[in-house]
Fold each of these.
Amino acid sequence: MSHAARSADFIRAKVLDDKASGRATEIRTRFPPEPNGYLHLGHAKAIVLNFDIAREHGGTCNLRFDDTNPDAEDQEFVDAIVEDVRWLGFEPDAVLFASDYFDQLYEWAEQLVSRGMAYVDEQPAEIISAQRGSFGKPGVDSPFRDRAPEENLALLQTMRAAELADGQAVLRAKVDMAHEVMTMRDPVLYRIRHSHHQRTGDMWCIYPTYDWAHGLSDAIEGISHSLCTLEFEDHRPLYNWLLDATGVDHPRPEQIEFARLNFTHTVMSKRVLRRLVANGMVDGWDDPQMPTLRAARRRGFPAEAIVELVRHVGVAKTNSVVEIELLESFVRRQHNRYALRRAAVLDPIKLIITNWPVDDEGNGVVEMVDAINNPEDPDAGVRSVPFDGVLWIERDDYRAQAEPKYYRLTPGREVRLRYAYFVTAVDHVVDEDGQVVEVHATYDPATVGGNAPDGRKVKATIHWVSCAAAVDGTVHRYDRLFPESLPDAHDPEIALDARRTYGAKLEAALEDVEAGDVVQFERVGYFSRDVGDGPVFHETAGLRDEWAAIQKAKAKASQIQS
């Protein structure tokens, strides 16, 4: 999407207005994840939006970790998030932490208490929650709300000095217990956590809440526009109240909310994803079935495709759901341009060409045939692959008794072996279970290169791998882990059999593919080479553009309705 097109959305319009009015002389944004898990596909929108807007105006974008909950956070997640942001193609102007500001945040908290704008509440958390009321029903004042500032300050300092146990007291802002916005009903600013922090160690036993740390951290960093997803819209009045209460205004950051990036067949709740990992339903956060950025990378999704998809979807004020097939379409388009083509037989049976020539020792003659590396890229050239009389073909490419409209191998039918010859099936061999394990066929020597000199046509072309030259590999294909189009965000149905694993026969060149590189298995799909011993590949995307099919079906349905 061009710069001009991207500038049309409401956030970019607001940024332009703020620059024109002088409210924001320098555009500064930030991406502020909590390091309590791995980034998922939804985070890509916030990353792209924040970095793009900063770059469009010659500004800066920080990566700032909201590390205010030591019980859930870990350096492992910090490192992974930094790596994922850079993998997407963005370099932060600074990598910062809310914990960098703990001293300043606490100093401001003492100032609020001294001015009678915050108080220490010694009630249990469940009572405080119940006293907040509900929509249309005002909350109930805490019995500690009107305690003298001097006493509150002494209690806050007691909390800071580790003299109280977890949950024994919290610091609350004194706002309005009847406010129509629930977050304004005397929100908690600090809570006691006798937990080791991954950066500050045991220096602190009280930790700021998100609402207290977020806006003030923005102000400390001079953020001009604090871009948040829609669930933080109700937090904006408190965001502004806390900036007013502390007097931090250099320049004053402005929170703007935008719709999240949601996909069909996808759940991005950290709680759900953490459960999948903990229960062994997946093989970790980078399992290719997961919707994390690390999983997408392992599966072979190019960072460029994810960024391009985010820019294509654009910025909106209302939540919506994007078909996951659209992302896969961007992925497929990227790989179609650059991925090398190779042959892989996932469910192999033997094809023996009975009239194939043999040498003086009775061994099948080996020919080298030219195969195109990428028809979309003429500069990719061709490669030579060995062809002989004993080949691996897909089990699904042969039928002992063919159903109507089945055009591949069946007794008496002729098909093309890609890049090689026409062959006609004669008979087959079955194992003790009645499964076909070997097909016998004859070839026409005149059809070298896959074309008949007499102009006759065949209705199918199948791929193959020479048995003598094949290497063994493992190939994983994937159905939807969340089979429902719109899965329950909290308790989704899980397809435990979504991964199908094959002991495949691979073209020898696939052994040399580097980990992380994606190739097209001809007639099958795009696959990414995994790390580790032996060739292991994960399905990235199929060959069929399901997004185009969905749009075609929608257009047809609309035409029928009209």
Amino acid sequence: MQGLFRSFFTVSFYTLISRILGFVRDILIARFLGSTVTSDAFFVAFRIPNFFRRVLAEGAYSAALIPVFSGIVIDSKDDHEAADFVENTMSLLLFVTVGLTIIFFFGMPYIIQLLAPGFSANEEAFGLAVHFGKIIFPYLIFISLVAHFTSINNVHNKFVAGALAPAILNISFILSLFILTPYLPTAGHALSYGVLLGGVLQFLYLYKAVLQFYRPRIRFPKFNEKIKKFFQLFFPGVIGSGVIQLNIVVGTIIASFLPIGAISHIYYADRLNQLPLAIFGIAMGIVLLPSLSKAIKNNNTEEIDITQNRALEFCLLISLPSAAGLYILSAPIINILFERGAFLSDDTFYTAKVLSLFALGLPAYIVIKVLVTCFFAREDTKTPLYISIVSVITNIVLSLLLIGSMREMGIALATAISAWVNTVLLFIVLRRNKYFILDSKLIINTFKITVSVILMAFGCYFLNLIIFANIQDLSLLLKIGSLLLILFCCNFLYLGMIFMLKVLTIQDLKGYIQK
């Protein structure tokens, strides 16, 4: 357990660095583009390779590769079998992504029509999205290989390179905005080239990192028993990951029919909602999968139960107050971060509303990362697939029902509700299969965490009501200082309750971080 949480804090720290750079990036994008035709077109184009990256690489690919590769590393007496598996899977991934890139490059107009049908009535938005998509899509090749090398490093308990790699993309975004924009038609063009450059640089960085273990070469793949086992896990997983990512695609399709700016509002809100998800939820999933896979391979029942319970408990400890804070403080956060340049007060209003509704589903999305990993570590990728299908159908139906009265806010609320449906169903199946046995500590601490969050939320609500009653009258410096004051007070209250109720102790913290 100490190794798990030490690795978790490592991944979280470097992810935080990347996310801070990501906020700088988004602030600059908002300043240069705001919520305009160009920004909507860029976000649609960027979403296409991101969809395949999450499905092929970070989703099903990692979920299938890590359990199989962990078994090879544990069982094999030399590195030859592991190196052979690394080269085989890398070559397969490369051939698939190159093929997809060629197909999508020439078929980009049809892809944009499918992904954003509302753009068909706007010639400028459609033309820009197609152009940006052709520039950006080769990014998929490089970022997929980055995910491959990250998984290999993670199995060997080396998490720094994979966690820090996204920072390279954010730096590429920022530099491209300032350096390339003066020489290109729009800042959207600069961002598109920045995506591609960032993918290449991330690939070079992760390839260098994996050289400490293997020197993988491109070759024609051999379909041995390990590769067949990989595909048995991969195909259900890729469908499951694809179904989950359809939530995003469905949201984009529906939002394309809304007034210009809706897609951008969803993007900016989702980026903020993704901060605690990436730092805590995704980070926990990254370190939990190889750790839990090894415990299961070794049939260590006690370690499995402790690892799962403490991982879920920690996610609740972080996600519940994060959701409460984002819900209550959505308006001042969006105002401070984005309201300048082309990003207007109306954009702040809609983006803040979307963020507050996204936040309702934040704890579910973070807990999903733990629950799904409990299936993946047992080489079960089919069950999360079936459950995700139910979740996506729920999301589609609710989005269509709510969008008429709530605009893009309806999409955010539907996404949050479908996340909770996914969470509940995953947990029920885990309990039924006796994969997850709740211990008394988790049950008691969940109640204590809930009480602490409720008290913190009351304090946060009244401080926000008093301090930001007339936010437009405050200077930017005063706004930032006031927000930091509220965050400090709320965190102090929450942590005070957590330590007073003995959810956490100083001894626990020392145990988590000591070597």
Amino acid sequence: MSNRLSKLLNDSALVSRFMAAPSPRWVVLCADLVIVALSCFITYVFSPTAGLDHPGWWFTPFAQGLVVFCAYALMMPVVHTYRYIVRLSVFEDIYRVVALVVSSSALMLLAALSTFMALGMAYFGIWNIFVVALLVFTGMVFTRLAIKYLYRILSGKSVRRTRAIALGSTVNTFAFASTLNNEPECHYKVVAMLSLMPDSVGSTINDIPVHPYSADTISEIFEKYDCNCLIFPEAQLKFMRSGVADIFLKKHIHLLMFSQMKEIDRKTGLETQGTPTVRNINIEDLLGRDVIQPDTTEVELQLRGQTVMITGAAGSIGSEIVNQVASMQAADIVLVDQAETPMHELQLQMEAAHPDIKIHLFIGDVANAGRLEQAFMRYRPRYVFHAAAYKHVPMMERNPSEAILTNVFGTKNLADLAIKYKVEKFVMISTDKAVNPTNIMGASKRIAEIYVQSLFYHIRGKSDSKSTRFITTRFGNVLGSNGSVIPLFRKQIEQGGPITVTHRDIIRYFMTIPEACSLVLQAGTMGAGGEIFVFDMGQPVKIYDLATRMISLSGLRPGEDIEIVETGLRPGEKLYEELLNDKEMTMATRHNKIMVAKVRIYDYNEVCGHLDTLRQLTELGEYHDIVAEMKRMVPEYKSKNSQWESVDKEISKNEVITEISR
């Protein structure tokens, strides 16, 4: 019978519209007003005092019912009983109805007390207030339940559901479990709950049994309910990051995260509850720590209305800086990059997201000083964020001259032009690989750091007048950046493996791209000039463990479905990265996640002498001599797993000979 009724109703255009989208807010509001009107009619028209004489028209049942109706109508926009999608909401709509009834009743009690004190008689009877409240509550709740039930029937039960267990505090867990079970289009059905609150253990809520969360009993509970899927609310993500996720993954339990998206009503501007979503956990969700929330107020004050130049604008870091600077209402943003296609894609993205901001595309290589000067001359930037660099370690080990041309002389070109065109702040993005470098890339970035810092102190020493402030920021790997390990692992998993790891014990620091870029902007704002800012990167992550997690999150078994193969350290690669030199110390700043490194200040003229030598060697293409000069300039640069280890031996041998000759 229900199937026949469902088919009959589904043929109706009105029902089809009901199923396709939720009813407008005004429809829900009107339905609630009708319920209130009927409740007032029943209460006052059929009241025992309806036929009695009244002191005036305003004390008649009709007038009193009208006033009660107005009181409820007045409170509805305040508590927003109509703001939720009735067929999807669970507790929120009930809370709103209770709030409406209580607030309206309180308003009427206040009116009754006021008339009693003024006239000696109460305008409203307490019994009538209670009856209206009871009828309104019953009518509104019943209507909502009926709509939810009707939607469930019309949707049918064609969706085959996966059995799952929900994790969380009891009340919140029950809320999202009920939402999932009452949403016919959802592919998951919660059959049990794991509670983090011991008080409710052993109870059953709405036919869903509640068990205590314990690492020792997880396997038994999932076997008992014949499921291998865990769903947890987004609010419990921090708890899962603490190592709990690994407990489930090791038992081959599929992890899913539940979130209730919020939507903004275009007409009222109010936040409303949207459709619930369940999604797979990404490795980015579990890596690291709580997201750093920088204070962008000062950054916005400095950048709003300014012309900002960003080099390497089409790269992972550069494009995110572009987006964040645009969101801070910079007047003009100059995008500098030599990658044509990525620049075109970035242009389309920016035109769609920020149509009111002037975006200037400037194709050029930072190693081309003449081309760069055209950009400075044309746009006169006030702030420069320098993200352009070669970053792949093995590639630069084979091409040291290009590392020098781009990472060192590209930075020098920009820094010199920043002085010439009176840029207010120049922020260079460096890397943790510049600390005790073991490869060409890290050493080239350290030389770039040395140059901009020595230039700042040299200019400041020559004149007391205001000049460009040069600031350097260092951080580790960013999640999902171009060429990083996570996209590589995802691709290898999709291809069926194996996942390649250079060394079982290799560790790295990770930070999300938006997080790193927001700290770059904040450090740039804080900097007075000459600082090298170091970010708190959290705890390092073992790359081998990262690989096993990603395999498990894909629903596969490490070592069985997907093999993990060690390939050996790549040229110039080291097991761990450092954010500070062993001889360096840090100073705290007003931001607890940003520190200033105390580093050796190089003499500008001495640095320029080294760079002149490097330029000559680069033009000649003498790789061996280039690396030797880099090592003389950065004594802590010691090659590892690289063909350039021989240069270290030569330098050490020459130093011994020199010492003996003395």
Amino acid sequence: MFKLMRYLKPYWWQVLILVFAIIIQVYATLQLPALMADIINNGIVPGDMGKIWQDGGWMLLLAIVSAITSFVSSYFSARVGAYFSRDLRAAVFAKVLSFNMSDLKEYSTASLITRTTNDVSQIQMIITMILSLMLRAPLFCILGLVMAIQTAPEMSWIIVIGITAVVVSAAIILGIVGPKFKIFQTLIDKITLVTRENLTGIKVVRAFNNENVEVKKFSKTNKELTKLLIFIDRILELQNPLINIIFNGLSLLCSWVGISLLNQNFAYLGNMTAFAEYVTFVMMSFLMLSIMFVMLPRANVSANRINEVLKTKEKIHWANKTKGVPDKKSSVEFKHVDFSYPDASEKVLDDISFVAEAGKTTAFIGSTGSGKSTLINLVPRFYEATAGEILIDGINIKDYAKDDLMKRIGLVPQHGVLFAGTVNSNIKFGAPSATFEQVKRAADIAQATKFVEKLPGGFSAHIAQGGTNVSGGQKQRLSIARAICKNPDIFVFDDAFSALDMKTDKKLREALKPIVTDAVVLIVAQRVSTIKDADQIIVLDQGKMVGKGTHKELLKGCKIYQSIVKSQLSDAEWRKETNGA
């Protein structure tokens, strides 16, 4: 928990104001019982109205000072707590965005969402309490205790009994509920996971008529969470009756002891009254501390979960500055590249070597699970090759600064990803300074202009989160337009034409040719028609290169490529294709 306190540093002066305000408030508040005792002993008992007015005026002034400083301390504790949580959320979010694919596999998406929202809120609440109570409660407790003993030393043993009772009850409650808070956060993760999973896959759930199954799955976790919450709340609710019993018992004890002392000296009435108020201050401060210490374990669980994310060591390290001067002519070269996932016994890619040159298209094809997408993901360093070298424009990929590498690459993922905003903002995502003419040109090449202009608002049309208000093909075309608008040196199309019909696919590839004359084009595809005209086709099978060449060359010499082509053609088309080859 205290490791996160570094996020308070920018607000040290506000914390300082808060501390001074609390000190003044505590001092002013603790003077009130002493003045009341003085009024009773030296004003009311002897009938001195001047003394009553004088001390009453001081009490009013101190009450106003106490109220003002209480407001100041509450304002700054809430303000600092809010800024603290803002900065912590930003730090967690930035850390998550810096993760590569291997880092993300360590956490579920639901868990990362919960850590960024619910866990940060828990810490914000306890930080606000710490700023408000951590100084105020001990000051009230220590100074109140000193002043109570000075006021009525004969009754000081009553405070010891009260403090012991409060501490013991808080320790029992903390011991029972403390271990449950970690289980609680785990169940919150599960609830978020199930909810997100079903909202994302709602079409599949409905298509298979499995709503009842998913409702039961959710209900099971929901019931576990509810049962745990009821248990925690029941235990925590015991605190109120226990505190009431302790407070009422102390009040009776103070009255009983005080009355017996009044029989000996009636002037002791003011001291007894002041002592009773000091006891209340001391007990309330212990109560506040006990509540905070009961909540601290839950916040500590959240803090540990956040620290896990912040301390995650990235598996891919980037150079601070690109080493060497990139070649003027773009290229991508794989030299004996292997890749396997952590703890996996088999290689996903095995001894991959090829050169993709500028102005030429290099395509990758193979059966499902052959390693095509994995190979493509090595180019922007989403994963790190476990052996061999990857050279981009003549420089080892590990020697690039992150910005220098990413600005060279225009990626179109297998599943088009759009962000909440407009058509224009999505196309400009990789090139924020692009003009409308550049955006329009990118949309024209991606064959997206016609459907965009039919949308309400055209290029200013709203795009929902995840692009749920456009079709799969439209989403894919906008993703392609986004890559084109960036004007990169390397285009990476990861099965990016799969949602397009044959006619649109052909038009798009023809429109692309003039703008990629100086760029490397890497295409992963399932359809042979998409890559048929590629300058170089690489055939993968179980992670190995089993063929490399043009369409015609592979038809003659690569059996796996032949089987892929044959599976996509009719007998007549196959005969025509092989006769042409």
